[in-house]
Amino acid sequence: MTDDHALAAELATAAGEVLLRTREEHAGIDPKELKDLGDRVSHDFLMAELAKVRPEDAVLSEEGADDHVRLSAQRVWIVDPLDGTREFSEVERDDWAVHVALWRAGNLVAGAVARPAKGVTYSSADDAPAAGAAGAPLRLAVSRSRPPEFVTRLADHLGADLVEMGSAGVKAMSVLDGTADAYVHAGGQYEWDSAAPVAVARAHGLHTSRIDGSGLVYNNESPYLPDLVICRPEVAETILGAISTVKAN
Ligand SMILES: Nc1ncnc2c1ncn2[C@@H]1O[C@H](COP(=O)(O)O)[C@@H](OP(=O)(O)O)[C@H]1O
Ligand SMILES: [Mg+2]
To answer: How far apart are CA 29 and CA 128, in angstroms?
Structure first.
């Protein structure tokens, strides 16, 4: 049987191929329709595959009804079939992703983030440290459309540059690629937005936490998980300290 790390990567990559085909076949349709179609085809694909290869496991998907059987399950796949839906509907953009993570008995144990338009899949099977080095100014990856309310004060306090991108997975993986030093988010998000990015980031030795420094906990009754920091470990203390300062002011 394929191990869970490899399965997460295979499923995320294959769902990404389904999304690329959908985008091509439906080029020119109304962006709203393309978003809904993308969410649906990728969700349906992942649900069918998981039912085939891991029939005993529970699933929490952004696009599915929340089956509370997951709350007493030992193994739960937490998936975001299309993260960065807005960017998926803008043909020239490549900052969207597929997230597949596995939670087992309290912890995230495997994950993959596919960036289909780049032909890359990041996996928890790899443990290579983040590329590059943290320099000055620090580069903070933030949402294009809903950055944290304190983001400008944070950047000023740190003397950091803001790098706007779509998709939580893309922002998290930009820290691995060395394109950014940290991804900071607050103000709203759900478990499926961060589970796979966090599983991959942790495997590669990155810091992952809530913005108050506490741990990110998954498979809760409410999947609302509004904030996080994913960053190079050597800048974690600086960034968490700066967030705490700017939030207090
Ligand atoms: N304030 C907020 N409330 C709820 N969800 C949010 C949010 N800000 C970002 N998200 C979700 O986090 C993901 C990444 O967002 P962004 O690209 O803006 O950083 C998106 O997932 P989806 O694209 O799967 O809906 C988006 O919906
Ligand atoms: Mg999402």
So the answer is: 40
CA angle 40, 46, 49 (to 5 degrees): 135
Tokens of 122: 């990041």
Go through the domains of the chain in sequence order and give each one's CATH number: 4-123 (3.30.540.10), 139-248 (3.40.190.80)
Residue by residue, pLDDT tens for the chain (249 residues) are 789 999 999 999 999 999 999 999 999 999 999 999 999 999 999 999 999 999 999 999 999 999 999 999 999 999 999 999 999 999 899 999 999 999 999 999 999 999 999 999 999 999 999 988 888 999 999 999 999 999 999 999 999 999 999 999 999 999 999 999 999 999 999 999 999 999 999 999 999 999 999 999 999 999 999 999 999 999 999 999 999 999 998
Query: How far away, in angstroms, is 55 Cα from ligand 1 center?
Result: 29
Q: Record the tokens describing residue 151, joined without a space.
A: 């983001």
Q: Smallest Cα–Cα separation from 203: which of 121, 120, 122?
A: 122
The question of ipTM being above 0.90 is answered as yes
Residues 100 and 81: their CA atoms lie apart, in Å, by 8
> Who lines ligand 1 at CB under 6 A?
62, 80, 83-85, 143-146, 166-168, 187-189, 193
Distance CA 30, CA 53 (A): 35
Atom of ligand 1 nearest to the CA of 143: 19
To test the pocket of ligand 1, the residue of 42, 94, 143 to mutate (highest count of ligand atoms within 8 Å of its CB) is 143
Beta bridge partners of 97: 83
Question: Helix and strand tally (H, E) in the chain?
Answer: 7, 10
